[in-house]
Write a structure and sequence with these properties.
Length: 89
């Protein structure tokens, strides 16, 4: 139920959502090291998700569990939108 609400209700994800420890850069994730290199890696990952999205079909998300290809694409869009809004006024 939470997956459907987060992915398909027409609501923006709120600020301050606590992420899982394995993704949190201050706990178990990766710390930022070199911004330019991080941007290059992000571009490569976005390219992978958008051009080879079929590879994600049925893969498990740490919060939402198994997701379809369409679910992964929707999640990627919402996740990117959420973070880009952090930098807007």
């Amino acid at each position: 139920m939470m997956k459907w609400i987060a992915l398909y209700l027409p609501l923006r994800w709120p600020a301050g959502i606590v992420t899982t420890p394995e993704l949190d850069q201050e706990v178990g994730g990766t710390s930022p090291v070199d911004f330019a290199a991080d941007v290059v890696e992000l571009e490569a990952l976005l390219n992978l998700v958008t051009t080879h999205s079929e590879k994600f079909d049925g893969q498990s998300h740490p919060i939402f569990g198994r997701m379809s290809e369409a679910g992964w694409l929707r999640w990627a869009y919402l996740h990117m939108d959420h973070h880009l809004r952090q930098f807007s006024a």
